[in-house]
Specification:
heterodimer, A: ABC transporter involved in vitamin B12 uptake, BtuC, 2 strands, 70% helix, disordered N terminus, B: mainly alpha, 75% helix
Chain lengths: 327, 305
C-alpha cells in the first residue's frame, strides 16, 4: 500500500469548525430529524429510503474498521449482510421469531464466519487478500443459492419482523428507523473507542508498517484477526436489520457488486475517518436514488463520478471538504 | 465414459475462454500493476460489437475481425482517457475507478443497444458436429473455439517471449522506471498492452456470444472467474494463467455435470438438482482458497515480483 492512503493519525474529530465537521454535524442532524420532516410533509417513503441508507452505512462503517484503520481491503463484505439476513430469515421461517434469539445468532454466525475467513485470508497480502475475501464471499453466495428449503436463487420472504416482546415494536417504521440510527451511532462510538485504544494503535501501526510492528513484538496477525471478526459481526447486525427492513432476503444481497458498493461508500466518503463511511453511504445511495428519478440512465452519471473521484479526489468527499486534492 | 470425454472437452473450451480473459488481465496487472474490474465490460463490448457487425455485414468471420479491431480501439481509447491516471495509484482507487467504469459501460450498452439481449448466429457449417472418436460427436464450433484459442495462446507466447515488443513488455514488468529511463516510450507501450488485453477480452466475448446470449452484465461473473484464474496461476504469469484456466474450466464443467448425479446417491432428487450446481460453483473458490493458503502467491509466482 502506498503512503497516499495514510489516515490522519489524529482520529478524534478536530475541535475547530472545519467544513468537514460542519458537514458531518449537518448530516447527522438531517438523519436525526428526517422522520419529523417525513411525518410533517407526509412523505413517508423518505423514511424507508433513509432506513436503508442508515443500515448500509452501518455496513460501510464496519468495513472501514478493517479497510481504513487496518489496511485490509476486503472485497467480500456483503457476505456478512447475507449471513445476518439469512440468520433472521431462516430462524423466522423455522418459527423462532424472537429478536433476542435472531439477532445474537446473526451476529454470532457472522463473527464465526469472519473468524474462519480471516484466519485463512490474513496469510495473504495485497491483491491476493482482496481476491481471497472475494472468493469466500462467492462461496457463501453459492451456498445461499443452494439453500433449496429457503428459496434458493429466488430468496426468502421474512413475514414477520423480529419480535422483542413488549420492549420495542419494529413494525413501527419510525421506531425502526430510530433503532437503526441508534445502532449506527453506537457502532461509530465503539469504533472510535477501539481505534483510539491501545488495540487501535497497534492496528493502525500494523497498517503503516506491519514488519516493524512485528519486530517490536506485537502478534499482528491476532490483532488483525480480532478487527476482522469485529467488523464481520457488526456487518452481520446490519444484515439482520436489512432483512427486517426489506422483509426479504436473497442471494443477490451477496453478489460481488454489492461488496463493491460497500467499498465505494467507504472510499467515496473518506477512508479511515469515523464518519466518512456514513457520508459515503448517504451520498452514494441518494445519488443513485436521485439520478434514477431524473434520468432513465442513472449510471451514465454515477459511473463517471466514481471514476473522477478515484482520479482527482484524495481522501473521498471528507478529503474534498478539507480542501485536500491530489497534486 | 463418452459423456465424460465430452464434458472434459467442454471444460477445456471454457478454460480456453477464461484464458483469453485472464491473459489480458494478468498482463495489465503484471505490467501496469492495475486492478481492472472493467475487463469484463470489454468482453461484453466485444460480443455486442460482433452482434452488430454480423447484422450489418451478414458474415460471422467479417464480424469477428471487425469486432476485434473495434475492441482494440475501444481499449486503447479507454486507456488514454480513463485508465492512465490510475497507474501507480493505490489498488483501492483503481477498484473504485474501474467499478465506476463497469456502471458506465453497462449503462452505455443499455443506451445504445437497448435492454434486450442479442443473439449472434453462427454460419451453418459451424452448426454441425464432427465425429472425434468412434461414436463421439462434438459440436464443431466448440472445437473451433479450442483450436483458435490455442493458436492465440501460441501467438501470445511468441509475441511476449520472442519479439522486441515482448521483451520491452517483460522488461517493463520487472522495472518500469528503468525501461522508461532507457528511452522506451512507456506510455505508448502501456496503451498497446492495454489494447491487446482488450482485444483478447473482446475475442473471448465474440467466441462465447453464439453459445450464450449477448446481454448486459454478461462480463461480471466471468470476470470473477478470470480473477480466480490469475490468482491461482500467479499474477503476471501467462503460463500460470493458461494452466489455471484449464484447471478451473475443467473443475467447473465436470462438477456441474457430475455432482448432481453423485449427490443423488445420498440426497433427494430435487435437493441434488439445486445443491449440485451451487456446490460445483463453490468448488472453484474452495480450490482457490486452498491454493492461496498453501501458496500465497499462486502456482507460478512471476519471478520478477
Amino acid at each position: 500500500m502506498t503512503a497516499s492512503l495514510e489516515p490522519a493519525l489524529n482520529v478524534a474529530p478536530p475541535a475547530v469548525l472545519t467544513a468537514r465537521t460542519i458537514f458531518t454535524a449537518g448530516l447527522l442532524a438531517l438523519l436525526a430529524l428526517l422522520p419529523v420532516y417525513a411525518l410533517a410533509t407526509g412523505e413517508t417513503f423518505a423514511v424507508a429510503l433513509f432506513t436503508r441508507v442508515v443500515i448500509l452505512a452501518l455496513g460501510a462503517v464496519s468495513l472501514n474498521l478493517i479497510m481504513g484503520y487496518g489496511g485490509m481491503v476486503s472485497f467480500g463484505h456483503a457476505a456478512y449482510l447475507g449471513i445476518g439476513g439469512y440468520a433472521v430469515g431462516i430462524l423466522a421461517k423455522e418459527g423462532i421469531g424472537s429478536g433476542f434469539v435472531q439477532w445474537p445468532v446473526a451476529v454470532a454466525a457472522s463473527a464465526l464466519y469472519a473468524l474462519v475467513v480471516g484466519a485463512l485470508s490474513l496469510r495473504t497480502r495485497g491483491v491476493y487478500f482482496i481476491m481471497i475475501t472475494l472468493a469466500f464471499a462467492q462461496m457463501i453466495y453459492y451456498v445461499a443459492i443452494g439453500l433449496d428449503r429457503y428459496g434458493g436463487d429466488d430468496g426468502l420472504t421474512v413475514y414477520k419482523r423480529s419480535d422483542f416482546g413488549g420492549l420495542i415494536d419494529l413494525n413501527n417504521k419510525i421506531v425502526f428507523y430510530y433503532l437503526c440510527f441508534a445502532i449506527l451511532l453506537a457502532a461509530i462510538y465503539l469504533i472510535a473507542r477501539l481505534v483510539n485504544s491501545r488495540f487501535g494503535l497497534v492496528l493502525r501501526g500494523t497498517r503503516s508498517n506491519e514488519r516493524r510492528m512485528r519486530a517490536i513484538g506485537f502478534p499482528t496477525f491476532r490483532y488483525k484477526l480480532v478487527a476482522f471478526v469485529i467488523a464481520g459481526a457488526l456487518c452481520g447486525l446490519a444484515g439482520a436489520l436489512l432483512a427486517n427492513h426489506t422483509s426479504f432476503i436473497s442471494p443477490a444481497i451477496m453478489h460481488w457488486t454489492r461488496s463493491g458498493d460497500l467499498i465505494v461508500m467507504v472510499v467515496l466518503g473518506g477512508l479511515g475517518s469515523l464518519f466518512g463511511p456514513v457520508i459515503g453511504a448517504v451520498v452514494f445511495l441518494l445519488l443513485q436514488e436521485g439520478l434514477s428519478r431524473v434520468t432513465e440512465y442513472p449510471d451514465l452519471v454515477l459511473g463517471p463520478i466514481l471514476l473522477l473521484v478515484a482520479i482527482y479526489v484524495h481522501g473521498g468527499i471528507g478529503g474534498l471538504l478539507e480542501g485536500r486534492r491530489r497534486g | 465414459m463418452l459423456y465424460f470425454l465430452e464434458q472434459c472437452l467442454n471444460g477445456i473450451q471454457l478454460g480456453m475462454l477464461l484464458f483469453l480473459l485472464a491473459a489480458g488481465l494478468t498482463l495489465v496487472f503484471g505490467i501496469m500493476d492495475l486492478v481492472n474490474l472493467a475487463h469484463g465490460s470489454l468482453y461484453m463490448l466485444g460480443a455486442y460489437f460482433a452482434a452488430t457487425f454480423a447484422t450489418l455485414t451478414g458474415s460471422f468471420t467479417l464480424a469477428l475481425i471487425l469486432a476485434l479491431v473495434a475492441s482494440l480501439i475501444a481499449g486503447m481509447v479507454l486507456e488514454v482517457i480513463a485508465i492512465r491516471p490510475l497507474y501507480g495509484r493505490d489498488h483501492l482507487d483503481q477498484v473504485l475507478g474501474t467499478f465506476g467504469l463497469i456502471l458506465l459501460f453497462n449503462e452505455l450498452v443499455r443506451l445504445i443497444w437497448g435492454p434486450e439481449g442479442r443473439t449472434l448466429s453462427l454460419p451453418p457449417e459451424m452448426l454441425t458436429a464432427v465425429q472425434i472418436l468412434p461414436g463421439v460427436h462434438y459440436p464443431i464450433y466448440r472445437l473451433v473455439i479450442i483450436l483458435a484459442t490455442l493458436a492465440v495462446a501460441g501467438l501470445l507466447y511468441v509475441l511476449v517471449m520472442r519479439t522486441r515488443l515482448g521483451m520491452l513488455v517483460r522488461a517493463g514488468a520487472s522495472n518500469r522506471e528503468m525501461v522508461g529511463a532507457l528511452g522506451v516510450n512507456i506510455k505508448l507501450l502501456y496503451t498497446l498492452v492495454f489494447g491487446l488485453g482488450a482485444a483478447l477480452a473482446g475475442f473471448a466475448g465474440v467466441m462465447q456470444a453464439p453459445i450464450l446470449t449477448v446481454q448486459i452484465g454478461m462480463g461480471e461473473n466471468i470476470l470473477i472467474l478470470a480473477f480466480v484464474v490469475i490468482i491461482i496461476g500467479g499474477i503476471g504469469s501467462i503460463r500460470g494463467a493458461f494452466v489455471a484456466a484449464i484447471i478451473v474450466g475443467l473443475l467447473d464443467t465436470i462438477g456441474r455435470s457430475f455432482l448432481p448425479d453423485v449427490l443423488r446417491l445420498v440426497l433427494s432428487n430435487s435437493a441434488a438438482q439445486t445443491l449440485g450446481p451451487s456446490l460445483s460453483s463453490m468448488s472453484i473458490y474452495m480450490l482457490m482458497a486452498a491454493i492461496l493458503v498453501f501458496r500465497p502467491e499462486g502456482l507460478f509466482p512471476a519471478a520478477s515480483r
